[in-house]
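Figure 2 data, in text form.
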Amino acid sequence: MSNYRPVALTSIPCKMLERIIRSSLVEDIEVNNLFSKHQHGFTKKRACLTNLFETIEEWTEAIENGYGLDILFLDYQKAFDTVPHHNTHRKTALV
C-alpha cells in the first residue's frame, strides 16, 4: 500500500477513439519512415530487450576499440516516491 497509485478509468468510446488515432499515427510514421533507428518502444519487432542488446553491442564495441566507457544508472522510481503528494501550500492569516 505504500506505493499505491490510483487507476484512471477511461470510457469505452474514449478508448476506441484513442486506439483509432494511435493506429493511424503509427501507420503514418512507419510509412514515412519517421521513427528513429534508436526508437524501441511502441514499434514492431522492437522492445526493451532489443534496446538492451543494441546497447550492450555498442558498449562492447567501444571497449574493444579502446574508448573509455562511463555508465550512469538512475532510479527514478525512488525519486518519485520521495515527492510529497499532499498539499504543501502554506495557509496565511488574513490581516
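Caption note: The longest helix spans residues 12-31.
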